[in-house]
């Protein structure tokens, strides 16, 4: 609750004084505009999932070239890949190296906010209770990948994920062999798959919401199933706040992911904040469960009966990383950071890596000792430490063009 009060305090205190500041044009741009304003092509496509959710899919079309898809983390959308400039962001390196670049959007974010069955405004409970890791895994990834392979005529696609974008891909590779056979390469940036040792205040914040039943009941009472970080007024205020008071902005980043300003272009903070997106409560709840159990498992409905209805057993099934078999799954390149509060290096080294067959690795997992969670997206030196390595690997792969 204290975090909410802080938010409110900043909101009330700064709103009157900040309206007159000149703002960065990327704050108001959507993903397509951010890319086209940098001189690159981009269009927004729509993918329909098996359960009839409509997902936005951004594409920097490079016809005839092999496809690569990038998938964002929690409380973000495709804009997480577009917040800096050509010569900095991974997408421009990929495009210039001759790849057809796609940016996925998970259900419930700004670009994937509709479904045939549920209207997020009229039936928020049904809509947002379908927006969590298991369904992104089961529906969003396969639908998006199949759509791209169908469109481009390639047999395989490369995948780059950040944070939750790595979780859902590990989950899909572990549970869906057909999907695994279509991915030829997986670059995992800040893989927050095991959360037993996470120090993220975001997760602690979630605990506060979820473990304190009064607060959770309160959300129910107000029919709130989603934290609308995408709320335009809140975002404008946050952006101005970051511009006016970079230290306050730092502490918000710190809360979420661990923050170390030395790698970031701090004048871009208002842009980064402006493109944060909504947080479905069930998704948060699922991550919260993982911090308690330390397991990579499906959503726990909280009692034997409901679990049985969904899974045919009383406990949530595990995503078994041992099901990811070399030769039948992509080669992997894993990057993790020593200052990452969310994907804590202890969890990566003691839980994730030992569960992966070493033959899956394209090269030994890469530890960047002073990287925090957001640096994988926005650090000024990420191009040298990460992006050029990914591009070099992709240039050596076979994507199997069909005739
Ligand atoms: C949400 O998406 C629409 C286009 O689908 C775009 O016009 C709008 O700017 C986006 N809003 C945010 C906050 O990203
Ligand atoms: C840092 O951000 C500012 C403001 O957006 C921008 O003008 C500048 O070019 C950026 N610097 C680098 C090195 O990208
Ligand atoms: C997380 O907290 C633990 C215990 O306080 C600490 O040992 C560890 O270094 C912290 N991890 C990071 C990445 O700060």
From TrEMBL:
InterPro entries named among the record's database cross-references: AB_hydrolase_1 (IPR000073), AB_hydrolase_fold (IPR029058), Lipase_euk (IPR025483)
Key word Zinc-finger present: no
Record keywords, A-Z: Glycoprotein, Hydrolase, Lipid degradation, Lipid metabolism, Signal
Coiled-coil residues: none
Record domain AB hydrolase-1: where: 66-378
Annotated signal sequence range: 1-20
Sequence similarity: Belongs to the AB hydrolase superfamily. Lipase family.
PANTHER family attached to this UniProt entry: LYSOSOMAL ACID LIPASE-RELATED
Protein name according to UniProt: Lipase
Higher taxonomy: Eukaryota, Metamonada, Anaeramoebidae, Anaeramoeba
């Amino acid at each position: 609750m204290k975090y909410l009060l802080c938010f409110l305090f900043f909101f009330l205190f700064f709103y009157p004084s900040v309206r007159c500041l000149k703002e960065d044009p990327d704050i108001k741009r959507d993903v397509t505009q951010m890319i086209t304003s940098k001189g690159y092509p981009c269009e927004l496509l729509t993918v329909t999932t098996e359960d009839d959710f409509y997902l936005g899919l951004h594409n920097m079309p490079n016809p005839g070239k092999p496809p690569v898809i990038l998938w964002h983390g929690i409380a973000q959308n495709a804009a997480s890949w577009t917040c800096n400039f050509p010569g900095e962001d991974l997408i421009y390196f990929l495009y210039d190296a001759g790849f057809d670049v796609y940016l996925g959007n998970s259900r419930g974010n700004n670009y994937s906010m509709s479904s045939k069955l549920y209207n997020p405004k009229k039936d928020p409970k049904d809509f947002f209770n379908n927006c969590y890791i298991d369904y992104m895994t089961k529906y969003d990834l396969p639908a998006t990948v199949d759509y791209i392979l169908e469109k481009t005529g390639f047999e395989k696609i490369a995948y780059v994920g950040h944070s939750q974008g790595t979780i859902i891909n590990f989950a899909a590779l572990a549970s869906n062999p057909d999907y695994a056979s279509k991915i030829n390469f997986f670059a995992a940036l800040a893989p927050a798959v095991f959360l037993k040792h996470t120090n993220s205040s975001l997760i602690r914040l979630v605990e506060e919401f979820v473990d304190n039943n009064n607060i959770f009941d309160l959300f129910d009472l107000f029919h709130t199933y989603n934290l609308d970080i995408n709320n335009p007024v809140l975002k404008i205020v946050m952006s101005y706040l970051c511009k006016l008071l970079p230290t306050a902005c730092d502490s918000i980043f710190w809360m979420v992911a661990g923050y170390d300003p030395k790698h970031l272009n701090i004048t871009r903070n208002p842009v980064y904040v402006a493109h944060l997106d909504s947080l479905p409560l069930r998704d948060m709840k699922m991550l919260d469960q993982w911090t308690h159990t330390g397991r990579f498992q499906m959503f726990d409905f909280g009692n034997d009966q409901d679990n049985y209805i969904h899974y045919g057993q009383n406990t949530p099934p595990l995503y078994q990383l041992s099901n990811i078999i070399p030769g039948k799954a992509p080669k992997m390149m894993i990057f993790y950071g020593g200052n990452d509060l969310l994907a804590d290096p202890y969890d990566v080294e003691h839980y994730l890596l030992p569960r992966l067959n070493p033959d899956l690795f394209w090269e030994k997992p890469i530890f960047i000792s002073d990287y925090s969670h957001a640096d994988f997206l926005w650090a000024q030196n990420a191009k040298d430490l990460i992006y050029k390595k990914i591009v070099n690997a992709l240039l050596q792969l076979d994507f199997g063009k069909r005739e």
